[in-house]
From TrEMBL:
This is Adenine DNA glycosylase. Its EC number is 3.2.2.31. Residues 43-191 form the HhH-GPD domain. Transmembrane segments: none annotated. It holds the Pfam family NUDIX_4.
Length: 342
DNA sequence: AATCCGGGGGG
DNA sequence: CCCCCAGGATT
């Protein structure tokens, strides 16, 4: 693989991103801040650049260093993460910051192996940080690279079945500027060798690419057979007290939307359960909210009532004006909106 | 090796 | 509607 061509392309076409040090600045001796690179990489796990930008700017404004983030309450981190999804990332992010401060003097390890021992840092993220910050010559393999390499080698099986082979082939191509090479390949996948379009005529890997030679690069990567997405149904109960405050509670620490804020709901089942209202009141049906999770579709009937607060002591009452600052996942923001709040 | 875990943007 | 995104932890 023509790594020099990839780097030359990157020197001219690198995306300008808030967490990135440009190739020109790198040549001038400016090195990336591992804290900012780590934060961005965790946010970018299964998440698009466009969705991450505002969260990254907010986090780095609130917590400019890993020590600041480690000292922050977990609740505050979850509130700021709300809406970004995959909430285990936020808990691992905080745990990782604490570990860096407690076990490493506030300095991130400078090798992929050392980084991967930290919470929320796996094979991809450890390699990305080690390459981008320390130019460790390690293969950085993400979803973009899966697609670029599957096309380059005209891989006839789903990527999952050939991950080790792809990593080995990529490792042989990693140049001295391994950090810029990793970011170059990801930019290539995001802009030139995209999922539904391949601009082969301007691609630095044009000459060696087998899919381009075959003439149908979009045939790759070969997709695995998709599983069906089941439907689950349930009820959501929006309770307000005489002052108009809304009853909220914290979800269990494990499982779906762990430790995030919610309004009470029924169980979620294939067949819509009978509603069991958590308190007496004049319950009114507002409508249905549909939310798509990775592995199922959820349909919630939204109910509301004014109730007496007695017996509702597991959660708390929140004024409507404070809902924006709660750790509410998008699902429950939809529920509250359906009930006429926010 | 499979499964669980969000949400949004684009075709 | 569909797909896919700078994946990791758990089982």
């Amino acid at each position: 693989m023509d790594s020099p061509a990839v780097l030359a392309w990157y020197d001219r076409h690198a995306r300008d991103l808030p967490w990135r040090v440009s190739p020109g600045d790198r040549r001038a001796g400016i090195n990336p801040d591992p804290y900012r690179v780590w934060l961005s990489e965790v946010m970018l796990q299964q998440t698009t650049v466009a969705a991450v930008k505002s969260y990254f700017l907010r986090f780095t404004s609130l917590w400019p260093t890993v020590r600041d983030l480690a000292a922050a309450p977990l609740d505050a981190v979850l509130r700021e993460w709300a809406g970004l999804g995959y909430y285990a990332r936020a808990r691992n992010l905080h745990a990782c910051a604490e570990a860096v401060v407690r076990d490493h003097g506030g300095v991130f390890p400078d090798t992929a192996a050392g980084l991967q021992s930290l919470p929320g840092i796996g094979a991809y993220t450890s390699a990305a940080i080690a390459a981008i910050c320390f130019d460790e010559r390690v293969a950085v393999l993400d979803g973009n690279l899966d697609r670029v390499l599957a096309r380059y080698y005209a891989l006839e099986v789903p990527v999952r079945e050939a991950k080790d082979e792809l990593r080995g082939a990529l490792q042989l191509a990693v140049p001295e500027r391994s950090g810029d090479f990793a970011q170059a390949m990801m930019d290539l996948g995001a802009t030139i060798c995209a999922p539904r379009a391949a601009m082969c005529l301007v691609c630095p890997l044009h000459d060696g690419c087998e899919a381009r030679a075959e003439g149908d690069p979009l045939r790759y990567p070969v997709k695995p057979v998709k599983a069906e997405r089941p439907v689950r149904r349930g009820h959501a109960y929006v309770m307000r007290d005489a002052a108009g405050d809304v009853y909220l509670q914290t979800r269990p620490a494990k499982g779906l939307l762990a430790s995030m804020t919610e309004v009470p709901t029924s169980d979620w089942a294939a067949d819509l359960p009978e509603p069991h209202y958590p308190a007496e009141g004049n319950w009114r049906w507002h409508g249905q909210v549909v939310h798509i999770f990775t592995h199922f579709r959820l349909e919630l009937d939204v109910w509301s009532a004014v109730v007496a607060p007695e017996g509702l002591d597991a959660g708390w009452w929140a004024a409507p004006g404070t809902l924006a600052g709660e750790a509410l996942p998008t699902l429950f923001r939809k529920v509250l909106a359906e009930a006429g709040l926010s």
